């Protein structure tokens, strides 16, 4: 029952993390009256991330003070459509954010674009390897937008974030020291790369010896003081080692708080309402329009907020769930392959090689940045010939030393006992002398990996939880074994005491207990055909022209990189279409 | 499980325990104090802490278990010396002990381990039932001795059985109990002293972690050199 009806506004943003902040900026610049509804609390650098309180591994890194409170809402997970799903009761495998800034508060700042071929993956693979190279149950497809179309928006988002890096392909010219495999860039990064820690330099040297192409990972951790195009200021990163899982206390990590909110929150035509949990979009199927959104406010009252334009800026899982709860778009059915909402859920595949050094090489693991370090991209995307390998996709390999927080980040040989005198001896012996080479790669979409509503479990408001059906597939295990195998070769070249590789094996099931990445993607995917996508190439719903979906929900399959750079660029791309076309003549931006 | 159910269960447990074992009697107190003097050594700061959650029998179990999970030796201090039981007791009273941020609505079902924790028991309930069950098991197997009265070798064998899942109980999963116990012991050993464990940054000094310094820009490119400054904690103390 609606307790309160608010006055009509031009636009409402559901969720106020990165994409909400970008959209808020763009739509208020266009003169719209915009309201952002955020389910969590307000947060800012001061007082919420201030030193020394933030340097507390237990509170933030382990107990997850800045993460989603699962007591109120979670999802259920199962490995196949045959199984019963059970709730994700404790955070483990992925860590969605909550509160102003969302996951943009506690991310690393690993700021990538995309390999051009990954935006048209099905077409590209078909052209290069033939149609039969794609397994029958693999439902990969094209994004419907090209790298050239997105390039200005990649550029714009890097400028907002003050990204530190070095171009490898500047206007088509390959530049020494950058990533030679990247798409063509129209300009250099706004800031030079971060300095390298010792382990990263050893990795880069070994990779170079083997003929690979190491470069500094693009990092939205500022390497110098910086003022962005909005006038927001960043300070230089001091390598504190409390980055991902934490808020940044020195204003160096790009977040909504450091790059956009100082300007946006002052605007007269913008309003932020926190502790406002949207429970549905009010959808009028007849007119193919939404009339507004319904949310529960901090006092538990049900509020109707009418709006002309509704932008889903929540976490990927929540965007998909809200569409399902609101009846916008046909739910996907894996048995028939029909329907679209929930289709092509994918994750990311990680592996690694631990490298243990002798006492003459202390790695000082606590000297950490969320992003940066040295990477090779030789085995990512389609940067290498897949024909003899029999899989699609790849990943980057590198040393990104994010910290030496001892509860979470202790690297020990696998045969170390879990407790007792030998465990203690091992932490004393290895803590300072070990690094991890990370592999971070794609996951392809498959017919029976998807999202829908759970028939049993409910959230605190009594609404069905989202249900995830997901497991590792042969293609992705082959990929990680190949890429992590390459990482092992580099590790061997580094001159260490010992190395130990860790990668998924055939038959391994998706393990929700172990942190992997928070790069859940898909479920409300973009495309050029309403039969196989939820939103069009401008991120506009095919079923309700005044509903837009942002974020990694729209990726048809996962890329090898961390997704935020692409999600941010797509938000600016969509905002441009709204401002240039939609606001003048509201209606579908593409014909079905 | 709601909080009121837990407190009921706790009362129930206390009643049963008191009926079965006269833990507050002078007879039972003797081994308790003997244990105290044998393991607590000369550090008077530990004796100052009065547990808020754990009852006396649980408290002696916890101290004995911590002393085996991370023992003191020539490599450095053990979990008991660093105040890990205090850390765990404080955690029981906070959001972790109450599973305050976990999804705790039913139905509850057993599942593949890969799907994560699926019990209706909060960590504080798991400790309560787990300690009672392990002690009952020990008394049955080891001639009416509780866990804290066993030899180090016997204690290690019990902990190993719990870890491997060969020791399971009706009311609580032995493996889950061990999982929480080990996880929290390591947390208390390695976390900032502000949480009650890692007294005087003992573990950080042993491994070389500078703690809350959190500012290393001038040391990034000192390749091959150990960081020279001592550990500091959130309260501003230097190690």
Which characteristics define this entry?
heterodimer; A: 592 residues; alpha/beta; FAD/NAD(P)-binding domain; six-stranded antiparallel beta sheet; 13 helices; B: 239 residues; mainly alpha; 9 helices
Report a brief summary of the structure.
The complex is a heterodimer of chains A (592) and B (239). Chain A has 13 helices and 22 strands.
**Proportion in β-strands of chain A:** 15-25%
3D shape of chain B = globular
* Protein chains sharing the most extensive interface: A-B, 68 and 63 residues
End-to-end C-alpha gap of chain A: 35 Å
Q: What percent of the residues of chain B sit in helical stretches (DSSP H or I)? A: 40-55%
Q: What do you see in this structure?
A:
The complex is a heterodimer of chains A (592) and B (239). With 592 residues, chain A is α/β, with parallel strands linked by helices. Chain A has helices at 18-29, 45-48, 57-62, 103-106, 121-129, 147-161, 198-209, 256-259, 261-264, 316-326, 421-430, 474-493, 564-582, and strands at 4-5, 9-14, 34-37, 75-78, 86-87, 169-170, 173-174, 215-216, 226-227, 233-234, 270-273, 277-284, 289-296, 302-312, 349-356, 374-376, 395-399, 434-441, 450-458, 464-469, 498-502, 547-549. Chain A has one domain (4-582): FAD/NAD(P)-binding domain. Chain A is built from 13 helices and 22 strands. In chain A, strands 1, 2, 3, 11, 12, 13, 14 and 22 form an eight-stranded mixed beta sheet that branches. In chain A, α1 (18-29) packs parallel to α13 (564-582) and α6 (147-161) packs across α13. The mean pLDDT of chain A is 98. Chain B has one domain (3-105, 115-209). Chain B has helices at 3-20, 26-39, 44-47, 56-69, 84-93, 123-141, 152-164, 174-190, 202-207. The chains are: A alpha/beta (592), B mainly alpha (239). The interface between A and B is large, with 68 and 63 residues.
